[in-house]
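During the reporting period the student researcher (J.K.) took over the structure-prediction task from the postdoctoral fellow and processed the backlog of single-chain submissions. One of the processed entries is reproduced below for the supervisory committee.
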Amino acid sequence: MARDSFKNLTVDSLFAKEDTGPTMGYAADYDSKTILQNPEFLADLRGRYGNLPEDELIDKFYSDENWAQLNTAGAVGRIYEGGGTSEEEKSRNARLSQVWDQLPFFYQEGGRGWGAAKDIAVSVLADPLNLIPVIGPYKKAAQAANALLCVSVTSRAVIFS
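J.K. obtained the following structure tokens:
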């Protein structure tokens, strides 16, 4: 009798997932050259950071994303947050992550240029793995672990050696 419940079981049905993901809205298809001026994107930033001027919202966004992806403590904090506490917050964070993943790197056309070096340097230099002297002999292994952690959070990791 229990065997009957397996009659229609297929590999596809084992791994099929119901689409319960967030609505991506503007983040599903956008121009990376104009996204920073998109009203919906800016509204998501205001939802995350409050009512700041546009340039401060964008600077905070870049700073936070660099911290989360280039610093072990930031990456762990991002994982711990789990995307948010409400469905609205989770959807907003998913859209912002999608935008971040598609933005050009600082050195690419349309990127922030070398002005981004400060955020990047602070994130890397303040990494706890770089501040613990006992780690010295294991620094390369620690950097590799940090890089793997960053890559597991998002595909937009920048690795500095």
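The committee noted the following: Helices lie at 11-15, 39-49, 54-70, 72-81, 87-102, 117-125, 128-131, 139-153.
J.K. will present the remaining backlog at the next meeting.
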